[in-house]
């Protein structure tokens, strides 16, 4: 039995005002775990509100219940009121309060009981019940496990299944990484109960805007630097690029993975000059921990092979700092 399940069982044993929060720039695992858990808790007659710190992209519109969620950036008062009213707060796919910005304070000082369900490294102990499993492919996989261990597998219907499958597919790059045998077991069960994985993949991956693919082409053609002696690939986008391509939230998702397709490249970086911060997204292969890199140098976190962070610095400074720290983490290759 996973640690925390018994306490969780007590906490949800009678209907409550519940808030579920996930991280900013919500990805498939964030929206899938938050909305999937919400649908389950609604079946137990809880009154549930889902909050995302910033907007989700329109490709997730099909996720059941997502349109009733509160986006803090668009409705800060609504989000604060929901948190203040809550008796029980879930943080899903979220391991640190600084990932929910200003809402973090409301959550920290709320009298509600707090539950974390997450799979990132180094979870912060700001909750009453921590269900953290870093070997889980995704928070969605872990939500399935939690509901199952609560004895409620029959409550997972195809709609909840679709939410959970979304997170598993997203965080494993369609079953290419971060999997364990249990990941496939969960996927098989979800397919068995009626999740249409073919339709889901089509919705998640084949509905891109033309400008998105043109942006990818631009990055590959003009913004790729390969540092062969360290097996590293870097891409960056400047504020001017953001204007030129009208880049919106979510448009850069997935681009960093292309860099890892290059032979001998073991670390990939995408550096984005956003309005107030410079964001860095890292991916790696095998034993190289990009989580170490971002937690030490870029105020970030994540997983061993996929992590992100940010800096209040210029694009140029972030790029040169990144190049400078490479020898700390990677052996020099003779070329
Ligand atoms: P991405 O590079 O796709 O934004 O994120 C990769 C992984 O790193 C995700 O699991 C994400 O939650 C985590 N991550 C991204 N940015 C940050 C950050 O600024 N701080 C922390 N703690 N984690 C991050
Ligand atoms: Mn995740």
Characterization of this structure:
The structure is a single chain. The chain has 2 domains: 5-205, inorganic pyrophosphatase (n-terminal core), CATH 3.90.1640; 210-329, Roll (Diaminopimelate Epimerase, Chain A, domain 1). It is 40% helix and 18% strand. The longest helix has 16 residues, at 28-43. A hairpin with a 4-residue loop joins strand 9 and strand 10 (278-284). It is α/β, with parallel strands linked by helices. The radius of gyration is 20 Å and the shape is globular. The strands form 2 sheets. The protein has a 6-stranded parallel sheet, with helices on both faces. Strands 7-8-9-10-12-11 form a 6-stranded mixed sheet. It has helices at 5-11, 28-43, 76-85, 103-109, 139-149, 158-171, 181-192, 197-205, 210-222, 239-244, 255-259, 290-297, 315-329; strands at 17-21, 47-52, 70-71, 88-92, 113-118, 129-132, 224-227, 232-237, 267-273, 278-284, 301-302, 306-311. It has 13 helices and 12 strands. Helix 6 packs antiparallel against helix 7 (181-192) and helix 6 (158-171) packs across helix 8 (197-205). The structure holds guanosine-5'-monophosphate and manganese (II) ion. Guanosine-5'-monophosphate (5GP) binds next to strand 11 and strand 12. The site of manganese (II) ion has 6 residues, from loops.
Number of domains: 2
- Neighbour order of strands in the largest sheet: 3-2-1-4-5-6
Q: Could you tell me the strand content as a percent range? A: 15-25%
Query: Helix tally?
Result: 13
Distance between the termini: 51 Å
Low-confidence stretches: none
How helix-rich are the residues, as a percent range?
25-40%
What overall form do the CA principal axes indicate? globular
CATH class label of the largest domain:
Alpha Beta
**CATH-scheme architecture of the largest domain:** Alpha-Beta Complex
């Amino acid at each position: 039995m996973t640690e925390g399940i018994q306490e969780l069982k007590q906490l949800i044993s009678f209907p409550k005002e519940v808030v579920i929060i996930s991280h900013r720039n919500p990805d498939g695992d964030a929206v899938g775990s938050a909305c999937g858990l919400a649908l389950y808790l609604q079946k137990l007659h809880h009154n549930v509100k889902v909050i995302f710190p910033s907007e989700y992209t329109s490709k997730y519109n099909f996720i059941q219940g997502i349109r009733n969620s509160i986006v803090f950036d668009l409705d800060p008062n609504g989000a604060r009121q929901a948190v203040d009213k809550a008796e029980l707060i879930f943080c899903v796919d979220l391991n640190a309060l600084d990932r929910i910005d200003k809402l973090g304070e409301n959550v920290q000082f709320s009298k509600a009981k707090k539950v974390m369900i997450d799979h990132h490294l180094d979870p912060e102990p700001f909750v009453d019940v921590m269900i953290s499993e870093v070997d889980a492919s995704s928070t969605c996989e872990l939500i399935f496990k939690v509901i199952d261990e609560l004895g409620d597998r029959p409550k997972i219907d195809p709609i909840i299944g679709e939410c959970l499958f979304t997170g598993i597919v997203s965080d494993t790059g369609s079953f290419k990484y971060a999997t364990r045998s249990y990941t496939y077991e969960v996927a098989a069960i979800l397919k068995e109960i009626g999740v249409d994985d073919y339709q889901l993949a089509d919705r998640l991956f084949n509905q891109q805007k033309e400008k998105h693919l043109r942006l990818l082409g631009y990055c590959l053609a003009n913004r790729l630097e390969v540092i062969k002696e360290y097996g590293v690939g870097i891409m960056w986008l400047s504020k001017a690029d953001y204007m030129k391509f009208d880049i919106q939230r979510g448009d850069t998702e997935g681009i960093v993975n292309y860099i890892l397709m290059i032979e001998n490249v073991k670390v990939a970086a995408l550096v984005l000059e956003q309005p107030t911060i410079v964001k860095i997204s890292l991916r790696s292969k095998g034993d190289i921990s990009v989580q170490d890199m971002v937690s030490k140098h870029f105020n970030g976190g994540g997983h061993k092979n996929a992590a992100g962070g940010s800096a209040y610095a210029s694009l140029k400074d972030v790029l040169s700092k990144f190049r400078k720290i490479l020898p700390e983490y990677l052996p020099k290759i003779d070329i």
